[in-house]
Amino acid sequence: MSEEGKRESALKRFGRSAKEFLYGMAGHDMTRFALKTRGSMEHLFILITMGDLLGIPILPPYYSLRLLPYVVPQISTWKRRMLRERDLTDALA
Amino acid sequence: MSLAQVFKEHPNRRYIEFGGKGGLGKTTFSAATAYWLAKQGYKVLVFSVDPQASLSDIFEQDIFGKGAVEIIPGLFAQEIDADRHIREYQEEIRQKIRDMYGLDEIPEEIEHYIQAAAAEPAMEESAIFDAVVDIVVGGEYDYYIYDLVPLGHALYYLSMASIYDEWIGKITALREEMQEYAQVAAILERKKETEEDQILAELQDIKQRINTSSSILTDREKTAFFFVVTPEEMIILDTLKAAKLFAKYQVPISGYIVNRVIPPELAQQDIPEYLRHRIEMQKKYLKQIDETFGGEVLVRVPEFERDITGLEMISKVADALFGGEA
What we know:
The complex is a heterodimer of chains A (about 90) and B (about 325). Chain A has about 90 residues and is mainly α.
């Protein structure tokens, strides 16, 4: 019984390792890409709602104020990204 | 058809708007209509969307920024204090930021943004627009009477709903797409649930508010829009132009009211030449009004012997508007 239990858990362990291996091979990059796209879109979103923070006038500031609290933590990284100088290496990233 | 008939035949039209060039009597008619409806036992709110509102003047009572003030039983009047609304709104945003991140003070650049946003030219109109949404969504009254701003501005106000709607539609779509990416990542990482996107929830709430307000303004069943004109050439021409523009925004125009008509009986009396000329001139333009707007002209309201302030005069105007019918 305990032998069998051990075997089963070894099998499980193997299964899990295989899953993680496969995820690392195929899934991880996709996840990274999805999150990266999500991140870029987040910055685009802040630009079109809070553009005023960079001096780009945007349409109705009244309702964008309502969104402000949710983006407070992202503001500084967003500004840095928007205002940083670009060079050739950006194309490779 | 008379104005009183329009009200009787369409009891579902609970949102009443008077539009027209500045100084033609929009506020007067808003107040008089509210008075007439209240006298018939309805609960009525007349409110101003004009930053330079004059309801206080016509009711001879300071109601600015005091919420809905009861003038006579059933008749409530409200002038929105846009500045205060903006200040309270800013403070609400600040408090939310403090609560969400456990801060004692708002980060400097965020504070700057909050202050700068309030200085935007569209801010005042937006604040009034938003306050009006609160008022009409409340549904406490039988009738809501909008004392609108003069024509050009009113158009801007009405178009604001569609501009907002488009803006919100676009950013909501972007937000939804972002949510999809977050979900893909979550599935790949085998997380059970994605975090709820609070921004998306907020956007949907804003969208719903704007839709409610704009659907009321353009709903033929619920809303009646009356144009105020006077027998003068320029007014007629401008009203024609405006009516076309308003029709574009699906504003349900329910009729025209002619104001400032010098009582034609005066011509029988011994009156100075000056007045006789004015009566002649008005006669010509009244004919033109009838030809242009045809059966949509509901009532002619005379020029009164004194200006309209105070309840006594308002009641006189109400009699002229609704033919003294109860």
